[in-house]
Amino acid sequence: MYKRKEVEKLSGKEKFYGVDFSILEFWQYGFSNLNSNILRGSLAEFIIENLLKNKNEIGIRNPWGDYDVLYKNKKIEVKCSSYLQDWDQNEYSKINFCRLKAKDLYWSSAVDPFSKDNAKSYKADIYILCLFNHKDPQTLNLLDLEQWSFYVLTKKELKNLSNDSSSISLTRLEKYSVVALKYKEVKNYIDNIV
Fold first, then answer.
1. DSSP state letter for 107
2. Plot region of 35 (φ>0 → left; ψ -120 to 50 → alpha; else → beta)
């Protein structure tokens, strides 16, 4: 078995060997489009980490974990959705938060991920559903946290509201009067839960 190399935070100043370009330039090239579906979810996780923790408590994102954020011994899963996508649209996207359930140890060689015994379940204690709640493409700015809304549910609440499903729509959240929080309210709300 090969143990993976521990990941260290990069500064952006690191240079590729033998050439004159840096990690920062790579980040600018590959990750400047924050509204990309590939990147927006990671951005939402980063926002939640920073809303809940001090900077020195934030490590490196683990994209293969059973949850996204550990806060006060509570596992938090972060999901993200947006009305506006990174392509021309004739209408806004329908808001749906998907993949709320996962299989156990999906990336472990010790478990067959395709086994029928490895059923999907809710892995986190708390779910934060992040909605980039802005509808004007000309003023879209994912760095403006006023353009975001956050829905916080415990595992039990989510399971009940979603009928034990792996997804939940914004329509359903609104039907059951789940309150949309602004970014300034998220930490206090979570602290009251834990």
1. T
2. alpha
Nearest to 98 by CA among 126, 77, 69, 74: 77
CA distances 171 to 11, 24, 92, Å, are 41, 40, 14
Give CA–CA dist 100/174, Å, rounded.
Answer: 18
The span from the CA of 91 to the CA of 114, in Å, is: 37
Tokens standing for residue 88: 């021309």
Residue 72, amino acid: K
Q: How far apart are CA 160 and CA 156, in angstroms?
A: 6
28-79 pLDDT, tens digit per residue, is 999 999 999 999 999 999 999 999 999 999 999 998 888 999 999 999 999 9
* Structure-block tokens of residue 174: 């609104």
**Residue 149 contacts residue 98 (beta carbons within 8 Å):** no
Q: Where are the alpha helices (DSSP H) in 89-169?
A: 155-161
- Each domain of the chain, given as residue ranges in start order, spans 33-193
Contact present, 125 and 135 (Cβ < 8 Å): no
pTM over 0.85: yes
